[in-house]
Amino acid sequence: MSPSPGDPLEAEGVLNPASGRTEDGALHLLPRLVAEGNVSRVGLAEVTLTEGVPTGVTRRGVVLAPDEGWERGKNNAGVEDPRVTWIPSLGHYVMSYVAYGPLGPKPALAVSEDLREWRRLGPLQFAYQADLDTDLNLFPNKDVVHFPVPVPGPDGAPAYAMLHRPMWDLSWFRPGEGVHLPAGVTDERPGIWISYVPVAEAEKDITALTRPRDHRLVAMSEHPWESLKIGAGPAPIQVEEGWLLIHHGVSGSIEDPFAQNQKVSYAAGAMILDPADPAKVLARSAEPLMAPETEEERSGTVPNVVFPTAIEEIGGVTYVFYGMADAHIGVARLERTE
């Protein structure tokens, strides 16, 4: 998918899609559509298949726009980078997205039964956790993805879990304030965390998903290709070894974390999370599974970016949909090898 010529809503790119299927089984993407001024909306686009392979899309309109006051600042606005998970036990698609509001990027949730009509649940409100000696709500946060089924929580009881990526540098909000790390964390680079909501609470009131607790660190950067930071990609999928999490890793240098023009490279790797304790990493890729190689991946709004955000099975083949240089959307086939 590439920007439609002449469409003002796509003037600065189409990228980083979520995905899901409508009631007729048709596969859809929910792309981030970026209008002039870096104002993002979430669209809906039906995937065109040619002999079972994704080859294009048919646009079906906009399903979420920065209409709420907390999704807009005086000089910015946007609902960005959606991730969508179908959670059968809740009977809903759950969309996490980044609301680019008055205090910068904050994660929020919306739910739908059909991908077309979405109801906002509101911004995430992380429960206070004394042993962290901080309030997670102070920090920008991105890359929120939900597991599709309940998983064992810290106490062993089933819980709905979400991965997320806090950013500890508060200089964006108060110049000179600098980095504030939670207790027990010594590496200031953004990493992947997990938080939980008890099953009974979410099944009684789905808005409980916006009030996660029991926050734990899952993974930090380990390898050169992810030396700056890592973050979750598509929602985890079950494989025989546990939970397969495709993630992105960033290398290079970032002077302004919210600037579009950065000297960075985004690549994609994978982790296996323990099915008995998804806060535990059983294995991870030392080298990226995919790195920027094509012209569309190396040249764009932010050059040298592959940013996986959706994963779907089509005819027994697994496909990963990803943002290309913050300008286009590509698809890659994910194959299992020995």
Quick overview of this protein structure:
This protein is mainly β. The protein is 3% helix and 50% strand. The strands form five sheets. Strands 9, 10, 11, 12 and 13 form a five-stranded antiparallel β-sheet that branches. Strands 14, 15, 16, 17 and 18 form a five-stranded antiparallel β-sheet that branches.
Walk me through what this model shows.
β5 and β6 form a beta hairpin. The protein contains 2 helices and 21 strands. It is mostly beta strands and 338 residues long. The protein is globular. The longest helix is centred in the middle third of the chain and has 6 residues, at 199-204. The strands form 5 sheets. Strands 9, 10, 11, 12 and 13 form a 5-stranded antiparallel sheet that branches. Strands 14, 15, 16, 17 and 18 form a 5-stranded antiparallel sheet that branches. The chain has helices at residues 199-204, 295-298; strands at residues 14-21, 27-35, 39-50, 53-64, 79-87, 92-101, 104-112, 119-123, 141-146, 151-152, 158-166, 192-198, 213-219, 229-232, 237-239, 242-253, 263-274, 277-284, 306-314, 317-324, 328-334. 46% of the residues are buried.
